[in-house]
Amino acid sequence: MRIGFIGTGEIAGYMVRGLAGRGHQIRVSARNAQKAAALAKEVAGVEVAENAEIVARSDVVFLCLMAGVARDVLPTLPFRADQAVVSVMTDMPLAALHELCAPAVDIACTIPLSAIATGGGSMLPVYPQSAALEALFGQTDTLVPVASEAALNAHFGGSALSAPLIALMQTGAAWLARQTGDKQAAESYVAGVFAGFLRQMQETGADFETLLQGLATEGGLNASLKAHMAQAGAHDALTDGLDALKLRLGL
């Protein structure tokens, strides 16, 4: 398949790496020349091209721009009615995409994160459903069709949990490393603990409450630290932070 990326930032790079080695013709935007050149050098078969050429020669176009830039760039590009467009942009309503990318009509939005680069396990909320996205990532990652644009925007908010939760894991691993003197082993241990919980959920169907019940021994270390975090306002702060995103997400 001929695949084009308009915008060559971090997310575009992750997606290109996830598609590598599958026989696709991939073109990336020359707009960010340094990143585009590095990506083409790293991934075999990737070409760097101008935006107009990318759109003209692609069956599927991924939009990986900031919304403000997209409003200026997209109307100048030669979209076609027979090509699929997939946006990974925040702050860009679907109705606006249809105006900016006309005459293209097969337009969907999704939320890729860095795990998509490994070719397995990334969650991809999508609205509306996209046959192109399914064809490209359905065998390696998990597409999550949602019922509305509002639901997709809520998932954008949910994806923002990634950085704060990883930061908490990093803080915990740093504490462990101070006790043991081995940062690499500490991070590996903390990551492995949570990878185990995720496997448990996938293999048994357990939910978060089930996991918490298994860690709720009265007076235990987990119960004690969980209570401390709650009393310190960690859960309220998280909810407040997510609520603060609602206006931007149109929720």
How much helical structure, as a percent, in the residues? 40-55%
| CATH topology label of the largest domain | Rossmann fold
What's the count of strands?
Answer: 8
Strand neighbour order, sheet with most strands: 3-2-1-4-5-6-7-8
Query: What's the number of domains?
Result: 2
| Uncertain ranges | none
CATH architecture of the largest domain: 3-Layer(aba) Sandwich
Order of helices and strands: EHEHEHEHEHEEHEHHHHHHH
Describe the protein in words.
The chain has 251 residues and is of the alpha/beta class. The chain has two domains: 2-146, NAD(P)-binding Rossmann-like Domain (Rossmann fold, 3-Layer(aba) Sandwich); 162-249, no CATH class. Helix content is 52%, strand content 14%. It has 13 helices and eight strands. It has an eight-stranded mixed β-sheet, with helices on both faces. Helix 6 (131-137) links the parallel strand 7 and strand 8. The longest helix has 22 residues, at 183-204. It is globular. The model has no long low-confidence stretch (mean pLDDT 95).
